[in-house]
Amino acid sequence: MAKEGLPFVLVPALIAMLLAYFQLWIFAAVFAAIALFMAYFFRDPYRESPEGEGLIVAGADGTVTRIDETDEGKLVSVFMSPLDVHINRSPIAGKVTKAEYIRGKKAPATSNTASFTNERNSLTITGEQFTVRCTQIAGIMARRIVCWSKEGDELKRGQKFGLIKFSSRTDVLMPSNTELMVKIGDHVKGGETILGRVI
Predict the structure, then answer these.
(1) CA–CA gap between residue 31 and residue 120 (Å, rounded)
(2) Within a 10 A sphere around the Cβ of 96, how many other Cβ atoms?
(3) Left, alpha or beta for 158 (phi > 0: left; psi -120 to 50: alpha)?
(4) Which of 34, 157, 162, 179 is the least crowded, having the fewest Cβ atoms under 10 Å away?
(5) Which residues lie below 8 Å from residue 198, measured CB to CB, with a gap of 6+?
């Protein structure tokens, strides 16, 4: 479990124990259930990234809700529901050449405009052959974006670099010459599912 989730687990667990001490079993069960859900929400499963040149993997678990082709490249947006793993992972191996945090709104993460208006944190990761930008976007329920990496850090493909608390989305901007391997509606796993291959 991600250490950032500990307060969200311990507080309801302690309340549940206190209520159980006073034999308030129904209320104790409610808070115990909350503690169990939080432990599940902040889970941090092991992931093994695929090997191969030019591969770009998902930056987060969730459902592909948007695919765009812009002047900057091809963008794949993944929405993380409260039931998805919320750990973020590097789509490629490379160096963090830019880290930019932008204060913004907390509109629903399902909205396509969230990529431009919501609170977000972008990492530009430069590999040996190409560059991607992975953006953490806060949703309406998000409390805080957590990013453990900074400019100058070296990341492996699939390496954890942060998380977003509660529902949110992660955008990955890839080069224009990327052959996409996902479609809207696909459910992906961060660090494992191949979003595309640069050709």
Answers:
(1) 31
(2) 20
(3) left
(4) 179
(5) 54, 56, 129, 130, 174, 175, 177, 178, 179
On whether the CB atoms of residues 138 and 171 are closer than 8 A, the answer is no
Domain ranges of the chain: 3-41, 55-198
Render 89-126 in DSSP notation, one character per residue: E-SSSEEEEEEEEE--B---TTSTTHHHHB-EEEEEEE
* 4, 18, 32, 42 from 15: Cα distances, Å: 19, 5, 8, 19
Single out the residue of 193, 195, 198 nearest to residue 49, CA to CA.
Answer: 193
- Say how far apart CA 108 and CA 52 lie, in whole Å: 36
Model confidence over 107-140: pLDDT tens digits? Answer: 666 666 767 778 899 999 999 999 999 999 987 7
Cβ proximity of 175 and 137 under 8 Å: no
CA distances to 2, 30, 137, 188 from 38, rounded to whole Å, are 11, 13, 20, 22
Q: CA-to-CA distance for 119 and 94, rounded, in angstroms?
A: 25
Handedness of CA 95, 99, 39, 50 (dihedral sign): negative
Mean pLDDT, rounded, for 23-34: 96
How far apart, in whole angstroms, are the C-alpha atoms of residue 88 and residue 80?
A: 10
Distance CA 140, CA 168 (A): 8
pLDDT at 197 > cutoff 90? yes
Annotated catalytic residues are: 168
The answer to whether residues 9 and 37 touch, using CB atoms and an 8 Å cutoff, is no
